[in-house]
Amino acid sequence: MTTPFEVIGGEEKVHQLVERFYDLMDLEPQYKDLRAAHGTDLVNARQKLYWFLCGWLGGPSHYEDRFGHPRLRMRHMPFRIGIRERDQWLACMDQAMGEVGVDEALRARLKESFANTADWMRNTHG
C-alpha cells in the first residue's frame, strides 16, 4: 500500500511544502492573522511542522521520536485559534500544496483531512 508520504514525494517534497507554507505566511497579506499567531521567529515552527507532517503522511516519525505523541490540541491551546486563523491556515496550506505541485488527488484528500483537524483545533469562536 502506498502512503501519502510516498505519493507526495518523500522528505524532500514535504520540506518544500513546509518551506513554501511558511514563506507564503510571511509574504501574503491575506495570512496576516495566521502569521501574527506564530510570533516573531518561524524557524522552530518550520522544523516541527516538517517533522510532524513526515510522520502524519506515513513517513519517518521524526516528531514522535523527539517529542512523543503530538497532542496537537493541547500543544496549540496557548494560541488563539478561531475561524479566521483556521481559514487562513487552510488557504495558505492549499496555496502551498498547489505551488509545490502536490498531486491533485492527494491534495484533495489532504485538504479534507487538514480541514477536519484545523476545525478541531479551534479554541475560540471568533
From TrEMBL:
SUPFAM superfamilies: Globin-like
GO molecular function: heme binding; metal ion binding; oxygen binding; oxygen carrier activity
Pfam families membership: Bac_globin
Keyword terms of this UniProt record: Heme, Iron, Metal-binding, Transport
Sequence intervals crossing the membrane: none
Xref: InterPro entries: GlbO/GLB3-like, Globin-like_sf, Globin/Proto, Hemoglobin_trunc
Keyword rRNA-binding annotated: no
Keyword Iron appears in the UniProt entry: yes
Family: Belongs to the truncated hemoglobin family. Group II subfamily.
Alphabetized PANTHER family for the sequence: TWO-ON-TWO HEMOGLOBIN-3
Record protein name field: Group II truncated hemoglobin
Organism: Ramlibacter albus
